[in-house]
Amino acid sequence: MTLQRRQELVRLAREFDALIITDDVYDFLQWPDTPHESASAKPDRLESALLPRIVDIDKELDGGTDRPGADGFGNAASNGSFSKICGPGNRTGWVEGTTKLAFGVANTYVEALPSLHPPSAGSPLNSVANPLTYSGATLSGGAPSQLVATFLAQLLEKGEVQKHISDVLLPAHARRHNKMMKAIETYLFPLGVTMEPAQPGRTVVGGYFLWFSLPEGLTGHQLTLRAKEEENVVLANGDLFEVWGDESAASFRREIRVCFTWEDEELLDEGIRRVADVIKRLLATA
Is pLDDT at 42 greater than 60 in this prediction? Predict the structure, then answer.
C-alpha cells in the first residue's frame, strides 16, 4: 500500500471513528520493487523501513493523535509477531499504539466479574472500568510465552533481531519474490492469467505472498483442487479471504494466492510451471 493510500485510510478511520488493526508482521518485510532485477541479484541492505506503518502515520498525520478534538487513543493498532520474523516456533507477539491504547491493552478487562484492581481516579480508563476486572494473561508476566519473551527481549536489545531481518530475511524474500514473479510472467501470463497493476507511485513490495487472477471461466477453487490432485501443488483460492456477506463488493472467485517463502527456492519456478500445466488442461475442457 502506497504512502498516499495509507494516509487516506487513516483519515477515513478518523472520519468514522474506526480502529484500523494492521497485521504488521508483513510490513516489517518490505523492499524496493525491482521486478526486472535478476532473480539471483542481492538487493541493497536496508537499514530502515521504506514506508511508515499505519500506526506511525496515525501518530503524526495532521497533528497526530493529540490534535485538537482527538481523544488521544488514536485510530490504529499495530499487531506484530516474532513467529514471522524470527521463527515459526516463537509464539510471541505484541500490539502497539498510542500510550492510552497500550495502557488499555495492558490492562485487559473481563466483563461481569468483580473489579479486583480498578484504575485510579486519574486513569484514562476510569470511566469504563467498573464493574470490570483485569486479565491475568497480561498482568502476570505479559504473555503466555514468558520464557520465549525473555529470550527475544535480549535479542532485541543486542540488535540481533534487527540484523536478522536486514541481513537474512529481506535479501532472501526479495530474491524469492523476483524469482516467482519471473516464473508467473513466463508460464502464466501467456495463458491469460493477470495480476493487478501496481498502484500509482508504488515503489515497495513485501510480505510472503503474491496474488493473480485466472482467465474468465475458471475459478480459484477449481484450480486449487486440481493442482493438489494432479501436481501436488498447494494453492490458496481467493474466496477463502472474502468477507461473508460482502462478496458482492469484494469477490475473489478467480483469484489465487501463492507463497514464495515456504518451499525451497529452487522449486519456485517448477511450482509455477506445474500450475501452468493444470491451467492448460482446465482451459482445454472449459
Answer: no
HSE-CB at 266 with a 13 A cutoff on CA atoms is 0
**End-to-end alpha carbon distance in the chain:** 35
Residue type, 270: E
pLDDT of residue 115: 47
What distances in angstroms separate CA 282 from CA 81, 223, 235, 275, one per listed residue?
A: 39, 8, 16, 11
Question: Does residue 218 contact residue 282 with C-beta atoms inside 8 Å?
Answer: yes
- Alpha-carbon span 198 to 210, nearest angstrom: 12
Q: State how far the Cα of 93 lies from the Cα of 80, in Å rounded to an integer.
A: 5
Across 14-28, 47-61, 72-86, least confident range: 47-61
Q: Could you tell me which of 17, 27, 28 has the C-alpha nearest to residue 161?
A: 28
Query: For the segment 217-257, what is each residue's pLDDT rounded down to a tens digit?
Result: 999 999 999 999 999 999 999 999 888 888 777 889 999 99
Out of 20-29, 46-55, 210-219, least confident range: 46-55
pLDDT for res 44: 54
Which whole number is the average pLDDT over 10-27? 92
Chain-centroid distance, C-alpha 183: 23
107 neighbors 134 (Cβ within 8 angstroms):
yes
Largest CA distance in the chain: 72
Residue 200: which residues within 8 A CB-CB, separation 6 or more?
Answer: 2
Three-state SS for 150-218 is HHHHHHHHHCHHHHHHHHHHHHHHHHHHHHHHHHHHHHHHHHCCECCCCCCCCCEEECCEEEEECCCCC
Residue 209's DSSP bridge partners are 259
* Cα distance between residue 276 and residue 190, in whole Å: 10
- d(C-alpha 242, C-alpha 249), whole Å: 10
